[in-house]
Amino acid sequence: MKIKSSILSILMAAAAFSGCQNLTEDPKANLTPGTYFKTQSDLDGAVAAIYIQFARDGAWGFTNRSTSYFGSDDFTTDPGLNKEDFRLFDRLSGGSGNGSMVAQWQGPWQGIYQANNVIANYAKVNSTDEQKNQSAGQAYFLRALGYYYLVRTFGPVPVILTPIDVDDRPDRDPIEKVYEAIIADLQKAKEMLPVKFDNAPGKADQMAARSLLADVYLTMSGWPLNQTSNYAQAAAEADAVIKSGQFNLSTPYAQVFTTNNGPESIFGLQYNVNGGLPLRSAGSSCVPLDEVAANGSSGWDDYYPEINFYKKAPKCKRTDDTFYTTLKLRQPDGKTFKLVPWDSPETHARHPYYKKFRAGLNGDGVSETETTINSINPSTNKVYDIIRYPLVLLAYAEASAMSGGGPTAASYAAINEVRKRAGLPNLTAGLSATAFRDSVVYERAYEFAGEFGVRWFDIVRLQLLPKIVAERSSEENPIPANVNFAQKYLAPIPVNEMARNPKWLQNDGY
């Protein structure tokens, strides 16, 4: 595992972020963290580099960021084509040599390495304490975010909180220790960050830290730690975000996915096609291969929902805005399109698709009308919202119910706020704590359908694989009969990392 960050990569990433920095004047090979971190501008550039490490193609920028999450029921992929890496995990048969899965490992680590450099050096910068603390607070938040995805995906990982030598080979630390580091970082972020950054979309603030903490505590209440005392902590952090009054669900559901930085966006990665940083998990990636636009561009068929996941969706406006169920097939004249249902024999996959990810930002993904497709583009300027306000509302609803022996009026108010925007009636009153929790988990499944990892991590923390596999349509990619579900909640460590760290033991089942 190469874990010594290059200051040159910080400079290059900062240049990409700003679009105007000149890197040709001085010999960059002579730069070290000790000589680079001098001004607030240096520090700002280094923090910008962390965001870029998380946003690029090898991290959240492309569909391979979710490779091992294809075991979820809101993700499946083509039975053929060049989708083998996704298909193997869809069949719960992925292995450590899977090439696409490498992005899930390397993306967070690259951000962590950059964050470690910032945290180790920010104090020496010639700037005000307030400015330095704001920069360091963002680094703490982003480091916690990286570790949070690593520990939930791969289980035990090394806790590396300082820059270390490229030849070091640290041990994998226990899951509990990783979570201790995540919580410590987020608590520091809460202390150092302002409640809100004005006119600075994309910067993590105190509300982002509290929102992530709520999700972390909720996850710790389930498998593998099963620390149910953390439900109360999750409820408290989520409640603080709710009571801040900063966020709301006033944006119609469909528009959330065609506009940027709306009133429910708590933390989102920013993308810019012209700046060389596109989001490629919208647009072509989720469009059927069968669809060919008037200009000849076509869909990639990377991901879509399982049939029964779609069929079990609630009947509401949100469902209509989530799923794409009528395909447009270009006719021989190249100008007209035939509309066919998703299960038509004229389609090769016979699956519904995702509507909410098609357009990108106001149509920079798929440009279409109700009956025609003008163009299908793989690169969009759409913000990827890692934390949307409904995540906080539903975390509060579940955690408050499970920590207090049953749902309160506030628990119901939180889930009903999400349901109201979806076009659903209020949830049935008088549910037990467990029944209410199950209702919240169901709500999360469809509020966040197809959003990287949200559904999968609920399946993991509640150990739902036997249930969702039992409900899986026979038309999906087949799962081998001898799969041990208990060994599939964690992904394998990539084979190259195992080779670099010969003392590590691979996760069970791989």
Automatic annotation (TrEMBL):
Positions of the RagB/SusD domain: 354-510
Alphabetic keyword roster: Cell outer membrane, Membrane, Signal
Subcellular location: Cell outer membrane
CDD domains in UniProt: SusD
Major localization class: membrane
Entries under InterPro entries matching the protein: SusD-like_N, SusD_RagB_dom, TPR-like_helical_dom_sf
Entries under Pfam families matching the protein: SusD-like_3 (PF14322), SusD_RagB (PF07980)
SUPFAM superfamilies cross-referenced by the UniProt entry: TPR-like
Record's signal peptide: 1-20
All copies of domain SusD-like N-terminal, residue ranges: 100-218
Family to which the UniProt record says this protein belongs: Belongs to the SusD family.
Protein name: Membrane protein
Organism: Dyadobacter beijingensis
Record lineage: Bacteria, Pseudomonadati, Bacteroidota, Cytophagia, Cytophagales
